[in-house]
Design brief:
The complex is a heterodimer. By secondary structure, chain A is mainly alpha-helical. Chain A has 15 helices and no strands. In chain B, α3 runs antiparallel to α4, α4 crosses α6 and α8 runs parallel beside α9. Classes of the chains: A mainly alpha, B mainly alpha.
């Protein structure tokens, strides 16, 4: 199979997965609660007329199967319906506002987790003793059990309250503005040459991305270590040593070989990253999709919750496709 | 099975917390829901973990809070373990179209962020302890399903299973008596790893207010409330509930690490 055909094939396979997840979310959030308007408004007695009008406005009065298809088609067009609580507000606008914050957090958290995990795995893999390797392995298997709000709030206490060097939440200090170009403040501020705003944006993102990054870094440490060990035990290393290549240089070469399977692992971490981002954002008042989702949960705004969760389903599908493609590019064998 | 250090520490931690939940009435010095001191007292001899913003004893809330998490995790893990294992056994053994459909559904759910799925389910079912347990259980069924199915695929062609088939034993008996016992090792590892995950998911759902309703004590929810008192420096409202969540999850993670290590050693012998 050629690369183009492989990609087309994988893309086709993603469609049923996304459809299934969509159906699942639809059943869970649209069918299970019965009448979502009543569920959202609680047990308040509202006049029959008003209830019907609201249902009609939100398109909830149509038969379920019709809602199912219409919602999907509208969603693909970028129309995610209207909020049930804030009347007349398109959900798509809210999501477009919040998405860049989540994306920025996700990128920095990935950078942090990659640096922490691969760095630790590399140092441990290079070391001759077994102590560091043991610690790295343990680190690899227990970092994921850190409860994000517990760590995040502890860091806020330590750096925000006690040491007073970093802010405890938010994306920017009051009084600092960044014109949105990409929506990623650390990039926009640099593009506009505003280093003051850049420093402020960095200060705000350090703790959230460190928290999320640390929790996700375990598998990277473990993978780097085991791959380093595998490559270090191979014949090519014996050959290097026989030629008198310095250990430092060997470690660098081995590291390059060890890195390939790790890069492809990035995609697999994505689902964890999304779940973790919801917790991290809530912990740090980070104004992204996660905080938005939790806000909407508090108000039982079903239409908004449904939109965010379905968006996550699409993201997962697309990222898994991208991972497959990246893997195929690096390792031609998987195409066959 | 040789007990290694991780297994011992992990089991000890879990045991202490379960005992705490069971014996909460005897351990907690005060009521977890009524004020027993001034507001926001820092840890002192009368309130060893201080008091919260309503003057309630944090230690008593931590002790009683163990009940919520232990109950939810227990129900969730048993439900998902049983359903996932049965589906995995049937799917892997019978194969065919049923296997294809089930595997596809399970793989899709597995790919989805489990926390977000659990949130959606809890919202739909309504926030209470039992629904939270069900929501967590549903998200973990694929974990057991995939593991069991994979193992069954390799075991079902072993000669002792073929022999059982040749003897004309009923399928249910073959699955229960010949295949299931082969899975116990892996199931124990997955079970403890999964429990660590379930502790975190329960805490997260509580953090979002999707399990217990106030004033019921719960670590995740208490941590959420403590969040508002960071700038007042009330560290005891954060460190203790947050620490307990981490400790219980750590207990299960160490258990799983220890158990899987002993199995590797045993296989190597």
């Amino acid at each position: 199979m050629g690369l183009a055909r492989y990609i087309a094939f994988r893309a086709l396979l993603i469609i049923p997965t996304i459809l299934l997840l969509y159906t699942l979310v639809f059943i869970v959030l649209r069918v299970l609660p019965g009448n979502p308007v009543l569920a959202a408004l609680g047990t308040k007695n509202i006049p029959e007329e008003q209830l019907k009008a609201l249902m009609r406005e939100l398109g909830l009065d149509k038969p379920l199967y019709q809602q199912y298809f219409e919602y999907l088609i509208n969603f693909l067009r970028g129309d995610m319906g209207y909020s049930m609580i804030i009347r007349g507000r398109p959900i798509a606008n809210d999501i477009a506002d919040k998405f860049p914050a989540t994306l920025e957090l996700a990128i920095w958290a990935m950078v942090m987790s990659f640096a922490l995990g691969v760095g630790f795995g590399y140092v441990a893999g290079k070391s001759r003793g077994t102590a560091l390797k043991h610690i790295a392995r343990l680190y690899g298997s227990i970092t994921y059990i850190i409860f994000i709000p517990a760590l995040g709030l502890f860091l806020q206490l330590l750096f925000g309250r006690w040491l007073g060097v970093l802010p405890t939440g938010g994306r920017l200090s009051p009084g600092i503005y960044i014109n949105s170009i990409t929506g990623l403040y650390t990039i926009d501020s640099l593009l506009q040459g505003d280093f003051n705003a850049f420093a402020d944006a960095i200060k705000h993102i350090i703790l959230p991305s460190l928290t999320l990054g640390l929790v996700l870094s375990g598998p990277f440490a473990r993978l780097t270590l085991s791959n380093m060990e595998r490559v270090l035990g191979s014949k090519i290393v014996v050959a290097y040593r026989a030629r008198g290549v310095r250990e430092e240089v060997i470690a660098r070469h081995v590291f390059k070989h060890a890195l390939i399977p790790i890069v492809t692992y990035l995609g697999l971490q994505f689902a964890l990253l999304l779940g973790g981002a919801v917790l991290t954002e809530t912990t740090f008042n980070w104004p992204g999709l996660g905080t938005y989702l939790v806000d909407k949960i508090m108000y039982r705004d079903y239409t908004a919750i449904q939109a965010v969760v379905i968006l996550f389903a699409f993201l997962v599908g697309v990222i898994s496709l991208m991972t497959d493609v990246a893997y195929a590019l690096i390792d031609p064998r998987v195409r066959y | 099975m040789t007990l290694n250090i991780y297994t011992v520490i992990g089991l000890a931690v879990i045991l202490v917390i379960v005992l705490m939940a069971l014996l909460a009435d005897f351990i907690a010095p005060y009521s977890p829901v009524e004020a027993s001191g001034m507001e926001l007292e820092s840890p002192n001899p009368l309130h060893i973990m201080g008091t919260d913003n309503l003057g309630r004893d944090v230690f008593s809330r931590v002790v009683y809070g163990a009940r919520t998490v232990v109950v939810v995790v227990l129900i969730a893990v048993i439900l998902s373990g049983v359903i996932g294992t049965v589906l995995g056994l049937v799917s892997g053994y019978i194969s065919g179209i049923l296997d294809k459909i089930l595997s596809f559904v399970m793989d899709s759910i597995y790919a989805f962020p489990s926390l977000i799925l659990a949130i959606a389910l809890s919202v739909a079912l309504g926030p209470n302890i039992f629904n939270a347990a069900v929501a967590i259980a549903i998200t973990y069924i694929p974990t057991y399903f995939r593991m069991v199915r994979g193992q069954v695929l390799s075991i079902k062609n072993e000669s002792f299973v073929e022999m059982a088939r040749a003897l004309g034993l009923p399928i249910t008996r073959i699955m229960a008596r010949y295949i299931l016992p082969q899975l116990t090792q892996t199931l124990v590892v997955v079970f403890s790893m999964n429990s660590a995950d379930a502790v975190l998911t329960e805490a997260a759902l509580s953090f979002f207010g999707l399990t217990v309703q106030p004033p019921t004590p719960d670590w995740g929810f208490d941590l959420y409330k403590g969040r508002g008192f960071i700038l007042s420096g009330a560290w005891w409202m954060l460190i203790f509930p947050g620490g307990m969540i981490t400790l219980l999850a750590l207990g299960f993670a160490l258990l799983s690490e220890g158990v899987s290590q002993s199995y590797v050693v045993k296989e190597g012998e």
